[in-house]
Design brief:
351 residues, alpha/beta, Aspartate Aminotransferase, domain 1, Aspartate Aminotransferase, domain 2, four-stranded antiparallel beta sheet, binds pyridoxal-5'-phosphate
């Protein structure tokens, strides 16, 4: 028999097929910049495959620490920030212990709460998907929360929490606060400098979105030394493989090469938002990320229409608080042109 409740868990399913335009998973619309790819290839040819990776992952942690203004003891790594988040739920949650997060947000939070046997305390966002900090703090207080998770900017709504609000929550919370900054590079504001000031602040980052490396599974966390020491205890030995360490190191060292890509994505996001707003009746939510959330009567049908012409988007048509919403990752200029005209065609009656 499996542990009770686990068989009811949903599978994190994505429809894998040869999409012509894949804008359903918030990945980068381009592979690594050529200079980075070249360096990666060079370094991979020196990897000693017969040896285990460095157990302390010293080089990459030092590199990230240096680049973020922290010490190696403030940095830990995961197979994607997903693994870090799961470990944090495990560290702070458990039977009878509450974890507070907003909804709608990253669907995995509820699943990590479940598998860590924690009590999930979902706090609804406002109607425009902004966050009311008093509601978060009140829920944390009422449930004696052991952890608060803030997704900033938020997936799938695209909305951002101003840094002053994040700081206020961190300052007033009686428990640790994780800020999941998976899309931070498209927003520009980060809670990272506050880690020095607030021992209860934990910042999670990923290589999967702005750094175009979803394929290597790498994420990192910056926090107080005690938190990092605990994460280290609950991580498997050698949990990050050498290939990932090598590629992530190169990407982090050469992260400036991604700035034009990030800027291009922001420009394209605004171009698409303006087009959809002026050319259709679809509601476009303001976004601080690399995707747009749209609300339209018949969203499920629109998603099907786009799929029928080879375009994969993420449909939330029937999800609570996201009724009639679809999420579209920003693609390349040519891809976005095609997506925009397809949406306009559908609005004019194409099926
Ligand atoms: C994509 C994403 C992540 C993590 O992705 P990894 O690939 O596991 O690093 C974490 N949080 C949010 C909100 C995301 O959208």
């Amino acid at each position: 028999m499996f542990r009770p409740g686990l068989d009811k868990l949903p599978v994190y399913g994505v429809e894998e097929q040869d999409w012509r335009i894949k804008v359903d998973a918030n990945e980068s619309n381009r592979n690594l910049p050529p200079l980075v790819a070249e360096r990666v290839e060079g370094r991979l040819s020196y990897v000693a495959f017969n040896r285990y990776p460095d157990i302390a992952m010293t080089e990459l942690r030092e590199e990230i620490g240096r680049g973020s203004g922290y010490d190696i003891d403030n940095v830990w790594l995961g197979n994607g920030s997903s693994e870090i988040l799961e470990k944090l739920f495990f560290l702070y949650g458990g039977v009878g212990r509450s974890i507070v997060f907003s909804v709608p947000s990253f669907s995995m939070y509820a699943i990590y709460a479940k598998i860590s046997e924690s009590t999930a305390v979902p706090v609804p966002l406002e109607a425009d998907y902004t966050l009311d900090k008093e509601k978060i703090l009140r829920a944390a207080e009422e449930h004696d929360a052991k952890l608060i998770v803030l997704c900033n900017p938020n997936n799938p709504t695209g909305t951002a929490i101003p840094l002053t609000v994040v700081e206020d929550i961190v300052r007033r919370a009686k428990c640790p606060v994780v800020v999941d900054e998976a899309y931070m590079e498209f927003y520009g504001e980060t809670a990272l400098p506050l880690v020095a000031q607030y021992p209860n602040l934990i910042v999670a980052r990923t290589f999967s979105k702005a750094y175009g490396a979803a394929g290597i599974r790498a994420g990192y966390v910056i926090a107080n030394e005690e938190v990092i020491a605990m994460l280290r205890k609950v991580s498997m030995p050698y949990h990050i493989n050498k290939l990932t360490l090598t590629v992530a190191e190169t990407i982090f060292q050469m992260r400036d090469e991604f700035i034009p890509y990030i800027q291009q994505t922001i420009i394209e996001r605004e171009r698409m938002a303006a087009f959809i707003e002026t050319e259709t009746d679809i509601t476009v939510y303001p976004s601080s990320t690399n995707f747009l959330l749209l609300k339209v009567e018949g969203a499920g049908e629109l998603a099907k229409y786009l799929a029928s012409i080879g375009i994969a988007v993420r449909s939330f048509a029937n999800a609570p608080m996201l009724e009639n919403c679809i999420r579209i990752t920003i693609g390349t200029t040519a891809e976005n042109d095609e997506i925009m005209s397809a949406i306009k065609r559908w609005c004019k009656g194409a099926k």
